[in-house]
Amino acid sequence: MKKKKPLYEGKAKVIFNGPEADTLVQYFKDDATAFNAQKKDVITGKGILNNYISEHIMLAIRELGIPNHFISRISDREQLIHKLEIIPVEVVVRNVAAGSICSRLGLEEGAMLNNTLVEFCLKNDSLGDPIVAPEHIFTFGWATPDELETIVEDTLRINDFLTGLFLGIGVRLIDFKLEFGRYGTDAAAEIMLADEISPDNCRLWDVKTNEKMDKDRFRRDLGGLLEAYQEIARRLGVKIPQVD
Q1: Domains of the chain, first to last
Q2: How far apart are CA 32 and CA 40, in angstroms?
Q3: How far is C-alpha 224 from the chain's CA centre?
Q4: Cβ–Cβ < 8 Å for 179, 78
Q5: Which of 18, 22, 104, 169 is 20 to 30 A from 207 via CA?
Q6: Tens of pLDDT, residue by residue, the chain (244 residues)
Q7: Measured between alpha carbons, how far is 232 from 214 in angstroms, rounded to an integer?
């Protein structure tokens, strides 16, 4: 990565200006974090794996007719993306009870939910990404009712697609997180999927063994995170350069 001034640095990625005014460069770091960055480490090669896996999935989602910010991969760690106005709401999709919902609602991990549950969280690390209702989103102007309708429709379509994609490679999609943004600045701005889709923001369990193949391996000190991500890439047919 060439030396340049970042516009924004998050827990797992760094954002830089792109070659055109409406583009950005998204750089994938090797940093691993959990519990709102209270737990941290560096896992060499994680960023490369997430870059390639996310590219593969974003391209597949685009073929569904769902727009996203991905333009092209420009290096092992960098993507060229559309510049979006990020909507400060994270969309959490749950197919199976796992993670925070278990402690929050007293559910047993692995319990099937009666239907796909879509939750919204305010994207604010300092507040711990609190859960919010659609009424909060509208009241505070984070998104309009029409925008949220589009977001939910796209989210459910993505969930259906990813559930089948992962099931086809022997993996259960337990839950995942999405972010969206606006492409354009006028009233006709297009809603686009943003961020990434990788084992960093999906819970993925092996169908036969229920072995965790996602960032829970880091959260729970299970070890083997890099190997799990490599296995997901292998099953998806994503060719990854040698990670030293």
Answers
A1: 8-82 (3.30.200.20), 85-222 (3.30.470.20)
A2: 6
A3: 20
A4: no
A5: 104
A6: 455 789 999 999 999 999 999 999 999 999 999 887 788 999 999 999 999 999 999 999 999 999 999 999 999 999 999 999 999 999 999 999 999 999 999 999 999 999 999 999 999 999 999 999 999 999 999 999 999 999 999 999 999 999 999 999 999 999 999 999 999 977 789 999 999 999 999 999 999 999 999 999 999 999 999 999 999 999 999 999 876 5
A7: 9
